[in-house]
Amino acid sequence: MSVNILLTRLSGTWNSLGQGLTEDKVLKALDTLAENKISISNLIIDDNWQDIDYRGDGQWQHGWNDFEAEPKTFPRGLKALVSDIRSKHKNIQHIAVWHALGGYWAGLAPSGPLAKRYKTIQVTRDATEIDEGPTDGQMTLVAQEDVQNFYNDFYRFLSDAGIDGVKTDGQYMIDTWSSPSARRTLTQPYLDAWSLATLRHFSGRAISCMSQAPSIIFRMSSPTLFLTHGALSGKEPADTTQTRLSTPHQPAPSRRPQLRRLLPSQPGGAALAHLLQRT
After folding, report:
1. 75 - beta bridge partners?
2. What CATH number corresponds to the domain at position 47?
3. Quick one: 174 exposed, middle or buried, by C-beta within 10 A (0-12, 13-18, 19+)?
4. What is the torsional sign of CA 167, 197, 4, 31?
5. What is the pLDDT along the chain (279 residues), one digit of tens a residue?
6. How many domains in the chain?
């Protein structure tokens, strides 16, 4: 599908509903589109559907508690919402959800269920021009040895809920981790785990967001949709609604042999290796 066609058929909750996201708002928005005979085939449930801890002064300090949707604003859970959408709006073929590469903007909630379920580490992150940084500069992240399990479990949960794509944001944070050791030991495992999980569970239906850094682009394993936003770059007015979609000219073919060697040892890996060979 070309980028132009994708833009005309894709709708996300970010520009329309913002971060004050609830189940009722999503359903009402889709009903309003249908009433006005606006047909979409792809829906992204963007930032703020997750169960986060709301620590600190804003999103950059918040951590992620658990896989299920925020219980107060999505009381029936993600699966019930997706089921309602698919049963009522037959034109919607694909439903994706947003999440940050590390879970949420500050990673995991340090004392939440996910942090207890997986091995974690603390990583210091330098604040950038566009944010204030996490509380005390610390992010709680899934450790290298558990990140593949983490992504497989999360995407299996999403798939079971009827989700068939993701928009994975905040990937630039890899370059803002202060420690060279953290960048060296975590960058490849995170990107590999994410790439493999998107292939295994969503046939590669993924948007890589805020990720146009060399450390990410040159490690991409397959053709990936990249998304940037002018308001975040500082080069366009903050109220801009223009979103640019692009794909790298070369999807890092040098990374493919390594991933094809990794795949056969994973569940369903042989089929995924064949898919990667064809892309």
Report:
1. none
2. 3.20.20
3. buried
4. negative
5. 333 333 335 567 777 787 889 999 999 999 999 999 999 999 999 999 999 999 988 888 999 999 999 999 999 999 999 999 999 999 999 999 999 999 999 999 999 999 999 999 999 988 765 566 777 789 999 999 999 999 999 999 999 999 999 999 999 888 889 999 999 999 999 999 999 999 999 998 999 888 877 777 776 655 455 454 443 444 444 333 333 333 333 333 444 455 555 555 554 455 555 545 544
6. 1
Closest by CA position to 100, among listed 148, 141, 160: 141
In a domain? residue 226? yes
Angle (nearest 5°) at CA 93 between 88 and 99: 100
Classify 268 as helix, strand or coil: coil
Q: Answer for the pair 209, 172: CB distance below 8 angstroms, yes or no.
A: no
Pairing assessment for the beta strands 165-169 and 206-209 based on DSSP bridges: parallel
Measured CA angle at 1 (ends 44, 101), to 5 deg: 40
Asked if residue 277 is part of any domain, the answer here is: no
Residue 120 structure tokens: 């974690």
Other Cβ atoms less than 10 A from the Cβ of 136: the count is 10
Q: Where are the alpha helices (DSSP H) in the chain?
A: 3-9, 13-17, 23-35, 78-88, 113-117, 147-160, 180-202, 214-217, 230-233, 256-262, 269-278
Considering the domain boundaries, does residue 268 fall inside one? no
pTM score: 0.79
CA-to-CA distance for 151 and 67, rounded, in angstroms?
Answer: 11
Q: Rounded to whole angstroms, how far apart are CA atoms 173 and 196? A: 20
Domain boundaries, position 58: 3-253
**Rounded CA gap, 216 and 197, in Å?**
16
> Is position 44 within any domain?
yes
In whole angstroms, what is the distance from residue 190 CA to residue 176 CA? 15
CA 47 to chain CA mean position, Å: 9
